[in-house]
Design goal:
The complex is a heterodimer of chains A (about 280) and B (about 280). Chain A has 11 helices and 2 strands. By secondary structure, chain A is mostly helical. Chain A has a two-stranded antiparallel sheet with strand order 1-2. In chain A, helix 3 packs across helix 10, helix 5 packs across helix 6 and helix 8 runs antiparallel to helix 11. Helices cover about 75% and strands about 5% of the residues of chain B. In chain B, a hairpin with a 2-residue loop joins strand 1 and strand 2. In chain B, helix 1 crosses helix 12, helix 8 crosses helix 9 and helix 11 packs antiparallel against helix 12. The chains are: A mainly alpha (about 280), B mainly alpha (about 280).
Chain lengths: ~280, ~280
């Protein structure tokens, strides 16, 4: 089926209708979440009790809005902290990996490349528990040997950052490597002919060329980290990132506060995605 | 210069090796070792297969494991069936601006967290939810209907959550199929079905494989969707792992569960790659 080959009218109509239904169902859950953020009720469900901004700006019980709810604000801060940490690490390591696989040929390279892809096909919860098990073993070992208590190796934000990094680094590598692949190396050679050293050539020619990919990788890593649930769940300590904090509240029963937070999340990630697209266009 | 290149290689290798060895290789080996440990006294362990025996002898564990596997495969198939026509529409029927707009629309839901998406389905499906109210309003049912907390709800959630990871690879591979090839198929007397079967689907095979692998992985390792949308009888294997680790603090058994999950997912990924003659570098990289 292709536009240049005529098809029966009914078949075309049915196909378009199918695609339309698909997109409606795709949008429906998000629209519903967003709409009930404005319901003047204690529950995010019908009946509709009227429009309110209370779940965003309300400051008194029973309607404490998202901007006045300490727990949620702190969780957003924690998530942002983790996401920045993961993104910085992932982009740095991803850049190094991209150069390694693009510029060097060495024995075992193929196997190393496959090994680098593996974190993508390991279930997130398994990544989480394996890091948890190993870090506890190291922490216990250090304690037994030297009575040295390394807080960073116990469940907490350091482990969450490492756990998320362990698979997000692969994605950052792929994003950056894809752009480096397209780079015309004669530009670098031209810079070196003009007297630049190798490092200067990379810094002044190659890195500016890679900037859109670096920003893209950073944004993707940030979003993936912010949304991550499985790996985080196994490694989290007392400071809960937003997804975990919202999950805990959702289990106890939801108020439209969660809808308001969700709507803010949607706006935030759409904004980031737009920033990324703007940079890719350049 | 030679030694400079060597130094550069070492410097670039270091972060990669640190990452893969310290965060992937050793932790997984360690998890496997812990799963082989049997507790015989306070702080005393010996090596045995006891945890794996428990896994195979306790019907609940084995049953949950198999159920999770079968439902994940089913979720992958359903996702593929729903996504394929849509991807084909985006790649081959839609033109210019509307194509990129539709593609972008597919991505939008996945910029927000899985938690929000699941929450949306809870609001839709629950007893006091939108669909239940809609059905009552239309006079189709007389009282509230509970559509949450069953396997069908889990399936809806899984398919919705992983849709993007099927659509993107499918659109990418279908876009690379020239229109002329499809036209040639019709010119040679092909029908809609035969062109689809002999030209489009074989060409889309790499996309189908990589999409299926990712969707299967995401479903198998999902914790959120089964926990929030499933009922008491619809236990997911990841929930067992979580409860052994966090609630019961039986890390040995939990590690064995984790290893079984890893084994299953690796086997299925490997099998799918073998079956279709693809490699991991080509489907993922």
């Amino acid at each position: 089926m292709i536009p240049s080959i005529p098809q029966p009218r009914a078949l075309r109509a049915a196909y378009v209708a199918y695609v339309a239904v698909f997109f409606i169902l795709l949008a429906l859950p998000l629209v519903v979440v967003a709409a009930f953020a404005f319901n003047d009720s204690q529950f995010p469900s019908l009946p509709w009790e009227g429009f309110t901004w209370g779940w965003f700006f309300g400051s008194e019980r029973p309607m404490i809005g998202a901007f006045h709810e300490r727990g949620i604000l702190r969780a957003i801060g924690t998530s942002a902290f983790v996401a920045v940490g993961v993104s910085v690490l992932a982009v740095a390591v991803g850049l190094s990996n991209a150069f390694l696989f693009n510029r060097y040929r060495f024995r075992g390279q193929g196997i190393l490349y496959i090994f680098m892809l593996l974190p993508l096909v390991v279930p997130g919860i398994v990544l989480g528990i394996s890091i948890l098990v190993f870090s506890s073993r190291v922490a216990n070992g250090l304690w037994d040997m030297a009575q040295w208590d390394v807080e960073a190796l116990r469940p907490g934000l350091t482990l969450v950052i490492l756990g998320q990094f362990s698979f997000i680094a692969t994605i950052a590598t792929l994003v950056i490597a894809a752009r480096l692949q397209k780079f015309d190396r004669s530009l670098e050679e031209a810079a070196m002919n003009l007297g630049a050293g190798r490092l200067v050539a990379v810094r002044t020619v190659t890195l500016p060329y890679l900037t859109p990919a670096l920003i893209g990788a950073f944004v993707v890593a940030f979003l993936m980290s912010f949304e991550n649930f499985n790996t985080t769940l196994m490694l989290v300590g007392s400071d809960a990132p937003l997804t975990i904090a919202m999950f805990d509240r959702l289990k106890e029963g939801s108020t439209p506060l969660l809808n308001a937070v969700s709507l803010l999340l949607m706006l935030g990630s759409s904004l980031l995605a737009l920033v990324m697209i703007a940079f890719q266009r350049k | 210069m030679k030694s400079g290149a060597r130094l550069g290689l070492m410097l670039l290798l270091a972060p990669l090796l640190l990452w893969l060895i310290l965060l992937i290789l050793i932790p997984h080996v360690d998890m496997f070792l812990v799963s082989l440990r049997e507790r015989v006294g306070v702080g005393e362990y010996r090596i045995s297969l006891a945890n794996y025996l428990t896994f195979f002898q306790e019907p609940l564990y084995l049953w949950t494991f198999l159920r999770t596997a079968v439902m994940s495969i089913l979720a992958t198939l359903i996702t593929l069936l729903i996504a394929f026509p849509v991807s084909y529409f985006i790649a081959k029927i839609a033109r210019g601006r509307s194509r990129s707009a539709l593609f972008l629309l597919c991505l939008v839901p996945f910029w927000v967290s899985e938690l929000v998406r699941t929450f949306g389905w809870m609001i839709l499906l629950r007893e006091t939810g939108i669909i239940s109210n809609l059905l009552q309003w239309a006079g189709l049912v007389s009282g509230p209907v509970e559509m949450l907390y069953n396997d069908a709800a889990i399936m809806v959630g899984l398919v919705y959550t992983s849709m993007l990871f099927m659509v993107v690879p499918l659109v990418t591979t279908l876009e690379s199929l020239p229109d002329e090839v499809i036209e040639a198929g019709y010119d040679l007397g092909g029908t809609n079905t035969s062109v689809m079967r002999e030209i489009v689907i074989p060409h889309a095979a790499p996309g189908i494989v990589s999409g299926s692998i990712v969707v299967f992985m995401l479903s198998l390792g999902n914790y959120l969707t089964p926990t929030m949308l499933g009922g008491k009888d619809s236990l997911w294997f990841t929930e067992l792992i979580y409860s052994q680790f966090i609630v019961r603090f039986n890390w040995e058994l939990g590690a064995a569960f984790g290893f079984m999950l890893l084994l299953l997912s690796s086997l299925i990924v490997w099998g799918m790659l073998r079956l279709t003659g693809q490699t991991l570098e080509r489907t993922m990289g």
